[in-house]
Input
Amino acid sequence: MGKSISDAFEEVMAKVGEIGVQAGEAVKSFAESESTERLARGMKKGTRTAAEGIAKGAKMAAAGIKEGSQIASEAIKTNAAKKKAGREQKRNFTLSNGVRIPAVGYGTYLSTENNGKQTILDAFEAGYRYIDTARFYQNEKEIGEAIKESGIPRDEIFICSKVWPTMLGKDRLRESFDASCEDLQTDNLDMYLIHWPKVSQNDEEWITKLQDSWEAMEELYEEGRIKAIGLSNFLPHHIRPLLETARIKPMLDQLELHAGYMQEYALQYLRKERILAQAWSPLGRARVLGDERVRKLAEEYDKTGAQVLLRFLIQRGIPVIPKASSLERMKENLDVFDFSLTSDEISYLSCITETGWSGEHPDLAEWEQ
Ligand SMILES: NC(=O)c1ccc[n+]([C@@H]2O[C@H](COP(=O)([O-])OP(=O)(O)OC[C@H]3O[C@@H](n4cnc5c(N)ncnc54)[C@H](OP(=O)(O)O)[C@@H]3O)[C@@H](O)[C@H]2O)c1
Output
């Protein structure tokens, strides 16, 4: 930390005091050695010189302090503006169509099992305004009720839901979308995703079903019923066939991403295609929290392991949707904007050995028909 202006001023004044004492000492020894007449002459001249010197010095000091404080206050203002811009940038991500999404959303899978809509109300109280749900989670009704009860205007809440793979196909997707809207008590969704690319490994028609489903997504988007359309659990080899017939590119792909499972090849492809990657299970369903390397970093920053894991993803340019049950943990997971990991720490966490994988893979999953 640099010196404050008042510390610097105090130091200068102490020096002036020291010089004063030295001058007094000099006059004393002069007095002891010279005649009274010469002493009087010398003192008169000395006093005048000293007074002029002090006046000049004080003027210079005042000008210096004024200039210094101007420079300091400019620097403080610039620094604060830079910090603010950095904070704002990191708290939101922008999709390719300009829609902004918060860096930290609330994941609701298995979140309402014990306390129902109260969990969602708690999430709002903690400060979340992005809710991630899916038809599969069977909690859209509770979320709809919580939104209504919260009194928060609908346009201040970002709702994302997903269509389950058994409902793929042009008409079925629309049917599922309407059902989600009805349960969520809304006419439109902020984002809608195709949950998994295929229903099973043996589904030979998966590409046709996907292309038809995407057409339905595009129509809903053009009708203004969805602000952003995207995918979930799609790897490059699932996205390529979709892009062959798509008129509108997906804006986001929600993937399992966390330290210990970073799917770098998919991330590189998504970046090239300008599709934003979003992390599900950003904490590796809590399995990565006990990792020695994560714990060490958390200690160094005086943060928790969860905060380090979330911060890591955000700094990698990936928004996150952690799920937590208590108000305390919900708040903790939002409190990730007051520290920054170094590039080496990001590299380190990006390269840790595979850990905490859920075991769910889009090419191996078998969802009921
Ligand atoms: N698209 C997909 O296919 C897909 C798949 C899975 C999940 N998701 C979405 O992603 C969301 C998050 O993923 P997830 O729920 O699987 O995993 P997660 O967010 O990585 O981990 C949740 C687990 O971490 C614990 N936890 C949360 N915050 C904590 C903290 N600060 N300290 C200690 N433990 C903490 C939770 O415990 P408590 O609950 O006991 O607090 C819970 O056991 C889901 O809710 C869902 O919305 C999407």
Observations:
- The first helix runs from residue 5 to 33.
